[in-house]
Amino acid sequence: MDRHDARDDQPELAPAAVITGATQGIGRALAEEFAKHGHTLLLVARNEEALAKTAREIASAHDVPAHHAACDLATPEGCDQLVEVLRTKGLYCESLVNNAAIMTAGFFQDQDREQLLKIVDLNVRAVVDLTRASCPTCWRATKAASSTSLRWKGSCRCPIRRLTPPPRRS
Ligand SMILES: NC(=O)c1ccc[n+]([C@@H]2O[C@H](COP(=O)([O-])OP(=O)(O)OC[C@H]3O[C@@H](n4cnc5c(N)ncnc54)[C@H](OP(=O)(O)O)[C@@H]3O)[C@@H](O)[C@H]2O)c1
Fold this sequence. Notes:
- Keywords: Oxidoreductase.
- This is Short-chain dehydrogenase.
- By secondary structure, this protein is α/β, with parallel strands linked by helices.
- It has four helices and six strands.
- Helix 1 (25-36) links the parallel strand 1 (14-20) and strand 2 (41-45).
- Helix 1 (25-36) runs parallel beside helix 2.
- The protein is globular.
């Protein structure tokens, strides 16, 4: 099956909030918010040890399943790996938080080319790739939660989730 195919027709898969860059900072805070609302998590970053620790801590604090996937999202292989981890864990992406990003400082003309292209890879390419891969399943949930949409250069419309985690626990 193409990795971008919808999982809509596979009801046995469990929903998960996929949060990139979840080991620290804003990503970790958002992971805590989703967990507080009872969502199963799939936390993503590169450092396996930090991820496992974060997942353990959040799972025990909020009594939710917290999975993790160590992937370098600045590479196409890393994005593919995340999609594969979802599949092997029997999950589908219900909410996607594209949080992982890097920045640099200083004048544009002084920047290292490799670093600038890495920023594009993580902050732009991975966001497009993961959003596309998650669209079919996020779309179904989004229709119930939010009518916000994002227009991509006038050619396709893409749902985006509100930042407040949708209610799960009653
Ligand atoms: N902090 C601010 O003041 C601020 C202001 C405006 C916007 N933002 C934006 O908010 C987001 C989070 O910022 P933050 O300051 O909370 O970030 P942060 O503390 O630097 O954390 C970055 C997270 O992303 C992960 N990450 C970095 N490179 C990655 C890669 N190639 N693949 C997968 N994961 C990767 C890091 O883990 P690993 O290193 O283990 O991969 C870490 O979990 C970013 O998009 C940032 O641009 C932040």
